[in-house]
Amino acid sequence: MARLAREHGLDVMVGNMMGSSLSMAPSYLVGQLCDIVDLDGPTFLAEDRVPDVVYAAGHVRCPDSVSGGLN
User: Fold this and answer.
1) Which end of the chain offers a freer environment for a tag, N or C, measured as fewer CB atoms within 10 Å?
2) pTM over 0.90
């Protein structure tokens, strides 16, 4: 879908209002094709799952332990 949107001259965004790190894993993959990525949902949770995505210095990293090696 992201590639098709680009073919039509559209910008692409992926975001998540609220969700655990597990829900970020597929969004992280899609985000690699996007112009805007807003995947900070887990930072608003009182407690996230373990293992979790890593947020540091304005970047997000999704370790294989979260994504199942899909990165």
Assistant:
1) N
2) no
